[in-house]
Amino acid sequence: MTRWTLSPDRIPSAWFNVAPHLSKPMDPPLHPGTREPVGPGDLAPLFPAALIEQEMSTEPWIDIPGEVLDILRLWRPTPLVRATRLEQALGTPARIYFKDESGSPAGSHKPNTAVPQAFYNAQEGIRRLATETGAGQWGTALAFACSQFDLDLQVYMVRASYEQKPYRRVAIQTWGGAVVPSPVDDPAHPGSLGAAISDAVRDCVAREDTHYALGSVLNHVLLHQTVIGLEAKEQLALAGERLPDVVIAPCGGGSNLGGIAFPFVSDADVRLLAVEPLSCPTLTQGRFEYDFGDTAGFTPLLPMYTLGHDFVPPSIHAGGLRYHGDSPLVSSLVRDGRMEAVAYPQGKVFEASVQFARTEGKIPAPECGHAIRATIDEALAAKETGEEKVILFNYCGHGFLDLSAYDDYLNGRLPDEQG
Amino acid sequence: MTRWTLSPDRIPSAWFNVAPHLSKPMDPPLHPGTREPVGPGDLAPLFPAALIEQEMSTEPWIDIPGEVLDILRLWRPTPLVRATRLEQALGTPARIYFKDESGSPAGSHKPNTAVPQAFYNAQEGIRRLATETGAGQWGTALAFACSQFDLDLQVYMVRASYEQKPYRRVAIQTWGGAVVPSPVDDPAHPGSLGAAISDAVRDCVAREDTHYALGSVLNHVLLHQTVIGLEAKEQLALAGERLPDVVIAPCGGGSNLGGIAFPFVSDADVRLLAVEPLSCPTLTQGRFEYDFGDTAGFTPLLPMYTLGHDFVPPSIHAGGLRYHGDSPLVSSLVRDGRMEAVAYPQGKVFEASVQFARTEGKIPAPECGHAIRATIDEALAAKETGEEKVILFNYCGHGFLDLSAYDDYLNGRLPDEQG
């Protein structure tokens, strides 16, 4: 057998909170004006109370509401797959497993947190959400989730993506979401994630009926993603494995990495590996310090690895990984040596993605390709040493909406990168 | 519970052959030159012996080779889902189930036959396949399958799709297939499926190492798709249902319809319903007679419903349903009254598809939307009568590569149709 499914009634009933497992407590976010620690009241205009409580919680487990489970069960538990064809092509003694998050309605792991965020907002009487999106993975996921709870949604989409990659914009609209190009006040500007966050926060603050929603970085977002790692742990046992030797995931803001890796944090022998683009090397070349989450400095200051909130990463196909900062939880684990990080140029990433497509049959999203690149390199290292290493990586999304990137790669049109 | 999975070891081990269940034997295909019945020798330049034998077999069950099962298990068995949110939105007492074929590597049901076709050709020592594709569903599926058996692939893609909808072309190339616009000898011609078939057959006949492969219409193709209905039958029992009252699928050449419906053909109380586009109404307005499979008259004459092999359907978004003829097996069941057919204009189809996306969360391919339209109408009829009808339909593919069609629908750009 090379694929392990679980019946929908085997979905995890609680999220795993990594906060109490850290070697030292997290430093608090600071108010952008006063630079004093932010309290729940400061966040209330943006988020519902339940999410603020989760953001600050040190409880080890947090129950998943039944209404959320009912929707997650539309596609969860997701399969765990052993990549035997890739192993054979590499001639490696390593056993490679991946958790396939591409079967969600939006085609990525993002709905795992979009659904509970929509639920808690609806429960609190909120009628409308505002958010930003870059290439559109998060915007589509939240549009799907809002359709399930009859919430209106306003998406501010980076203008360059809105105009040049219209497919995810159309998906947002198909699910009933409204989407406009950002920045809204400068039609000549190509836009940036930072500017789109500013637009969304401004919208939210101006309207009583509206909250803001974020698809990565924050503690509660990563908490919601831990269903990935919890299921994988159970499925690895079904596959006859004790624990993986290494868990690998791409890292932009950190949500899919945290989702698969955090449940293994107390298993000391399990290496945790973050993979980022060389063009936006937050963990590998950034500094750990307090910085803003957005370009304009509207958000609280977070303790994290950052390239500086005015850093503008070059345009790469893995739009989901172009973020100047990183999740404070992930940053903390990297700083303390519990998690490693590596960076790759996109040409090496697409080379790995095409090898994966031609062996395992699935075409990955460029973000996901970063994990595949690192997985292949780990497997080739195991070939050198003869080690029967067990590798687990997160297949965090499909590439059906990123095929123009493959077209560029296959036809030699990817820009040169230092690497 | 609203979703029923089966472990990969529960995949069907044999295909269901509908031929021995017909009320009278099929009329044979005729040679295009002599108009005499075609024998196995006539087909040997195009197909491997195992597929020719399946094409003519009246054995009730045909074993699926282990090498084929190993690849089908990458995504099969597929889930059966109860569409409770759609039921609630319609206020119907009907129970609606769908078989979700969208999780295959190519995103549709097509790999179910692409894999065995590639396998039998590789087993016979063939090194290369040639095929045609319209919008690209079949070309992508065969490219994936050829990558699994190290076969070269040449795809002739209808020029208009090649130029205007490049995503599936890129997917074919990502899996290692070669693709050229058709017709090859007239760069100014927008192309047609008939012309692309002619290009592929000509390529195949000219080269010893090359066979031809077809994605629908033929008996062996529909045979391979019966894993869909066989799994659905087992999963409906798990869901506590005896049998569906009606089985619904879109119909172009007939492969996904045959796949889900044939295993129910001997269950006399189960209605079988084919859904086609009003712009290409083969079963509802065509004639049952011998006709060519292609425009140029290269292929054998098949006994089928046809609009005439020179019929040119208008351009619609459900490219997979634009075929002048139909599977002889499906045609035979319609002629004999065992199967019904209905036709819809595409505006009504997209209306249903958007309702499905906003309730069940998944964005369907336009082909698939035809089945959803008919399902909704059956469910609304059940609401009128109060009948607790059980409806099963085939969710034969996702719409991630068809979002420009949704863009046209949502912005009022679909052309008017008679309906």
TrEMBL record, chains A, B:
Matches recorded under InterPro entries: Trp_synth_b-like, Trp_synth_beta, Trp_synth_beta/beta-like, TrpB-like_PALP, TrpB-like_PALP_sf
CDD domains reported in the protein's UniProt record: Trp-synth_B (cd06446)
EC number(s) from the headed UniProt entry: 4.2.1.20
Keyword hit for Amino-acid biosynthesis: yes
Gene name per UniProt: trpB
Known partners and oligomeric status: Tetramer of two alpha and two beta chains.
Catalysed reaction equations from the record: (1S,2R)-1-C-(indol-3-yl)glycerol 3-phosphate + L-serine = D-glyceraldehyde 3-phosphate + L-tryptophan + H2O
Class of this enzyme: lyase
Cofactors (names): pyridoxal 5'-phosphate
Matching Pfam families: PALP
Designated name of the protein: Tryptophan synthase beta chain
Record-listed N6-(pyridoxal phosphate)lysine modification sites: K110
Domain of life: Bacteria
Record pathway: Amino-acid biosynthesis; L-tryptophan biosynthesis; L-tryptophan from chorismate: step 5/5
Recorded GO CC terms: cytoplasm
Record's function text: The beta subunit is responsible for the synthesis of L-tryptophan from indole and L-serine.
Domain Tryptophan synthase beta chain-like PALP: 73-397
Family: Belongs to the TrpB family.
UniProt entry keywords in alphabetical sequence: Amino-acid biosynthesis, Aromatic amino acid biosynthesis, Lyase, Pyridoxal phosphate, Tryptophan biosynthesis
Source organism (scientific name): Pseudonocardia bannensis
Keyword Cell membrane: no
GO molecular function, one term: L-serine hydro-lyase (adding indole, L-tryptophan-forming) activity
